Amino acid sequence: LEGFSHVMLIVHMHKAEEEKLRVLPPIDDQVRGVFATRSPLRPNHLGVSVVELLKVEGRNLVVKGIDFLDGTPLIDIKPFTSYDLQTPIRIGWLEGKTRQGKGPR
């Protein structure tokens, strides 16, 4: 992974004790389908996050911007490339939310 600026982390959100198909996002006042959110209450309990890769130290990665709990089981790591950036993008119900200083967590 040396030479890559960012990586995708795929994890098992093991602390999510329930599953819901509809959730209330913390930055919204309307219930949404779980697949339109970043909620951990998903049926598959999988999480994905793109983080900045600061350095590789042997079998360890030093990253910035991780949004998972300490101890969250890591399933896979993939390099994040320009192929992963499809533009233009639409952000659905999040439109306007991120511009108010809010964003998904």
Describe the structure concisely for a colleague.
With 105 residues, this protein is an all-beta fold. It contains no helices and six strands.
Task: Please describe the topology of this protein.
Blueprint: E1 6-12, E2 22-23, E3 32-33, E4 46-57, E5 60-64, E6 74-79
Antiparallel strand pairs: 1-4, 1-6, 2-3, 4-5
Report what the structure shows.
- This protein has about 100 residues and is mainly beta.
- It has a single domain, classed as YaeB-like (Elongation Factor Tu (Ef-tu), domain 3), CATH 2.40.30.
- About 0% of the residues lie in helices and about 30% in strands.
- The protein is built from no helices and six strands.
- Strands 5-4-1-6 form a four-stranded antiparallel beta sheet, with no helix packed on it. Strands 2-3 form a two-stranded antiparallel ribbon.
- The two termini are about 25 Å apart.
- The model has no long low-confidence stretch (mean pLDDT about 90).
Number of domains: 1
**CATH fold-level assignment:** Elongation Factor Tu (Ef-tu), domain 3
With strands numbered from the N-terminus, the spatial order across the biggest sheet is 5-4-1-6
Strand content: 25-35%
Cα distance spanning the termini? 26 Å
Main β-sheet: number of strands, strand sense, barrel status? 4 strands, antiparallel
Low-pLDDT windows of residues: none
Distinct helical segment count: 0
State the name of the first-level CATH class. Mainly Beta
**CATH superfamily label:** YaeB-like
What is the element string, with H for helices and E for strands?
A: EEEEEE
Q: Kindly provide the radius of gyration, computed on alpha-carbon positions and rounded to a whole number of angstroms.
A: 15 Å
**What oligomeric state best describes the polypeptide chains here?**
single chain
Broad structural category? mainly beta
The CATH level-2 architecture is identified as Beta Barrel
